[in-house]
UniProtKB/TrEMBL annotation:
Protein name per its UniProtKB record: Protein max
Bias type Basic and acidic residues, positions: 1-10, 59-75
Gene name per UniProt: Hypp459
Listed PROSITE patterns: BHLH (PS50888)
GO MF entry, a single one: DNA binding
Length: 188
């Protein structure tokens, strides 16, 4: 409808368009058949009517109680789906919060999911790099330990040889403290 006039004349589709036999609706006739409003309650009723019409189109020979039961079933499935979807979204958001709490410098701050995932990716990459670095250090320490074990075995061998030589010369054996003193004086 245009905004310039509230009432326009309409003709009956069965007539030739002449003014005889047709009349313009009066204000009283318009008020008796108002257009459906678009309030929330009426919209819900309209949706229910559309849903029922679509159910009738599936099988027009069905009885109304079956249609009503099927309509209730459809509404119940929709409600169940909405609840399960809401639960799923809540679980996902909880996991994002858990992930955010694990990331350094992110506690207590509000960030989008994209930022949380990006920070998590970079954090995991840095942990991988640290792990590779630490594995290299662990390998070096393992080699150093093997070398120390070898040197300790060699040191013990020379201490035993020293004690044997002292015994062959008729000298008393050295105490462990004396042996330690011999080893430190030999190093310096």
């Amino acid at each position: 409808m245009s905004g310039s006039s509230d009432h326009e004349s309409t003709s009956d589709p069965g007539t030739s368009g002449s003014s005889s036999g047709t009349s313009t609706p009066s204000l009283e006739q318009e008020d008796s058949n108002p257009l459906p409003s678009t309030t929330g309650l009426d919209l819900t009723k309209e949706e229910e009517k559309l849903n029922q019409n679509s159910l009738e189109q599936l099988d027009p020979n069905r009885k109304t109680p079956d249609l009503e039961q099927e309509h209730e079933h459809v509404l119940m499935r929709k409600a169940t789906h909405k609840l399960s979807e809401k639960k799923r979204r809540k679980a996902i958001n909880k996991r994002y919060d858990d992930l955010k709490s694990l990331l350094p410098g992110m506690k207590g701050l509000t960030h989008s999911k994209q930022v949380i995932l990006k920070k998590a990716f970079h954090y995991v990459e840095s942990l991988k790099a640290d792990s590779r670095l630490n594995q290299g250090v662990v390998r070096e320490l393992a080699m150093e330990r093997e070398r120390n074990i070898s040197l300790e075995a060699e040191h013990k061998h020379w201490q035993e040889k020293l004690q044997l030589l002292r015994q062959q010369k008729g000298l008393p054996p050295l105490t462990p403290e004396e042996l330690q003193g011999v080893a430190t004086s030999a190093i310096s």
